[in-house]
Amino acid sequence: MLSSIAGPLFNGLFAAMVVFLFASGLTLVFGILRVLNFAHGGLFMIGAYLAFTLSGVTGGSEMGVLRYVLLCALAGVGLGILGWLVERSIFRPLQKVDEAYSLIATYALLLICEGAVKAIWGVNFRSVPTPPLLADAWIAGDVVMPVYAVFVIAVGVAFYAALEWMLHHTQTGKLMKSVASDPWMAGKLGVNVPRLYAWIVIAGFFLAGVVGGLLLPNQTLSPNLANAFVVQAFGALIVGGMGNVRGTFLAAILLSVIDSFGSLYFPEIPGLFFYVAMAIMLVVRPQGLMAGGSL
Amino acid sequence: MEPSPAQASPLMRFGLAMLCMAAFLALPGIADKGIVFLAGTVALQMVFGLTWNLMFGQTGLVSFGHASFFAVGGYAYAYAARALPQVHPLLTFAGAGLLCAAIAALVGLIALRRSQGVYFAILTLALSQIVYLVISSSAALGREDGFTGIRRPKLPLGWTTIDLAAGNAYYYFIVVVSALLAGIVWWVTHSRVGRVFRAIQQDPERAAFLGIPVQRYRLMSYAIASGVAGVTGALFGPWLQILTPEVAHWTASARPILYTLLGGVHFFWGPAVGALGFAVLEYGTRTLHGISEIVTGAILLAVVLAAPGGILGAVARLRQRITGKERRP
Amino acid sequence: MSTTFTRRHFTGLLAASGAGALSLSSKGARAQSGPIRLGLISPLSGSQEIIGRYQLAGATIAVNQINQAGGVLGRKLELVPRDDKAAPAAGVAASKDLVGAGVNLMFGVLSSGVALAIAPTLQGDNAVLVLSAASANELTHDQFSPNLFRISDQAFMRQRALARLVAADYPAITTWTAINPQTAIGTSNWDSFVDGLMQFYPELTKKQVEVAEAIWAKFGATDYKNDLTQLMRRSSEGLYCGVYGGDAVTMFGQAASYGLTKKFKVIVDPGSEFIIAQAMGKNTPPGLWSGFHWYFGAYKGRKINDELYDAYVKQTGDKFPAGYVGEAHAAVLAYAAAIQKAGGTETAQVIRALEGLTFDTCKGERTIRKEDHQAICDLNFVQFGPDSSDQGWTVTGHKVIKGADAIEPPTPGQPLKFQYNKK
Hints:
The structure holds three protein chains of three kinds. Chain B is mostly helical.
């Protein structure tokens, strides 16, 4: 009996952390710049490919956990630099015009990401094994809990805690919140809004890169990876409440766990329940889980 | 939609639209089958784009799931035409549109009252994913292999019967019906209802204060747009002779948004121009195997950065630069 | 990364294909003495681009070989590739584009959806399409078109041949289950495999086979943990892994910590070819059998096979051509043989010549049945396992099953009926 509840719950939590980690960078950018970044999946994919290449450069496929974490950070830094370039050349010029137009720019960016991956890494499928230390599984009854999945859940919670702390307990976080709620007023009060925007984009890209690396052992690498989580992430983001980090975290858990049980007991249409839950949530709580105030 | 001095006069715009339709009708005489097939698809996509902007440009409603109505209309027509072949095809096409309008009205009745702005957008995204998943796993609809063998019908007109399967008959049918549908959207936009729509788009709170039932009008625009989109989907089925779930995919819902932005949000014909622009871009890059994504992406990016008001926005600015001075009061 | 098929190779191939793509302008100038133009419809962008590149490579090599030997009827062949993005609308646009440019002989097509979309347009456009990959049974059954041919195998014969293989080689494994994608081809593959199990176990081993309910996973899923949990509770000893390609790589990657490959004694896969081993290297599931369109190693010593293999390695630097290379190559050979036999390139002539045609290819002789236009051809299977080499995996065995042993009687226009799997 335990396994019929604990199993799907654990698997749902893992899926939730994948969605949350993916959405974390998206949330930052959307919460402050109000740009729904279509290209986020493309950036995530490039992060994964960067980590893949770095793992090859730094020696065989057998990785220690420390080296693996370092690779993810490096992939994040690479994407952060890309973020700086994109902010300068695309987002900043478009700040002056209607928000909607940045949507088409991010779509174009997504296409370029896909094309670039094909040009640089080719179209072959690739896979990186889980670092040996994380490759085992813990077994309780007949619930199998892969150590890697436990690791990802822990990282997801840690990311969430770090973001919360930064937003609510640091000077930067307070600045960000003030800009998010009223950029004009914040500017009048002496906040360098464009510079903050630039840092937000860099941070959003950095997170995409890090998460791309972190989830590398979980997915097949291919140029199709860009579209893997984007719709679920948008869902969690909005159900959570307009780029509210806590809301996104809770929404990702709620939707993914419901989907995990739904797909088990209604296997005819796997994945359906995520969206059913999403639609119901939006109708029942149209202002999002965490209403009022962004971030 | 505000008639800025830079825009062409109504008569001239009407003339341009007629010229565009004449070009579509003349196409089979001068171009090869490949281009004619694309043109039929583009005509439908142009109307599809116009319907999206009927919601967005007119009442400020953003839908991320517009393709679900294209798909529901398409599959409903295909299914009905097979199950009830004795019904007049025009009725079946209209029925598919009415079904979509009814579904939209029902969804809108619940959703529009509760959620707005980006919440409504994501709600439509969720609903369209549900439609996509249900079609993909429904054996009766052919799953992801598609609903096959959708015939081009015979069209009884009382005095004669046109076989739409013959030659380019179905192409002409698409062009004529697309023009009619575009006419309907144009009429809605420019009627009294359209003026109310615009008042809502510009300032919903003020409109409500003036006694305009904002929700009812939004619902109306959502239902009309979805209904017409459903008809374009219904027309597409016999054109391709197969329907696959990809027509309901979220990337298909992104298309009308991109058309509108590329063509120009503030112009009635913006989405149509954007659809045409996309088609030209994709046709031009079709033999650049391996680099078509990069080229398409780079061109899109360049257009957005150079002309953030869309193609028609850039044209308008150009006109203003040339003729602006004498036109200004 | 010597086994990688990179963009540089790909661009080289395009240049080698005689810049056929750019020759649209020569529409009216097609004379009897000009080159014979063959249109390749293939996913050259989008999610299936990896397969499109293989098809383009095989077709290019065939065209070059034939031209070096003097062409067909004294005329050179010219390849005109078009991208179908593995999407029906783009596929129809590609075929219309070819027809509009005066190309009436077409081949290729990976996705069955694309093939099903093009099939009904062929007669009206007076064109021929020779399928070299799309495997849906309907194409030579309910959706039969007189202008459509298939020189590669279809789902039914491939999966039944795989069942024959396991019945003959693993007579002790009589309990089977599956993890399949919730798709049309996933369902039809599994039903065909079960049909084969129910025929060949009693016939070859005198034992009844026990088939447990399959587990249905989302196509393109990113997480298989719930499916794996269920799979681990099954008591079956044989696993049919209907999840294929990139999805199979994800699934096996996540399955490692569950011990899936230790639990099942035999694991078979409908057609991932080299994809799983090449992506997983040292972590390749040991003993995995995979279906192939064509496995070059099974035909060493055959001239066509060896020349194709050498030309492929020389052009791309990749030592492991996927079966799609061989099938696209064979499609060009089919056209060459048919045009030679017909003495011309008109649609009606070529159709008549293709019907009943027997021609030699990299995987032996094939005969296209006159009734339903399906080729009777060999079925190839390869067994993989990890090893200590740099690439981390090796081929541990292969098997060829004759098409005649697995194919059903022709019933064009009729849906395929299972003989043994009554469900």
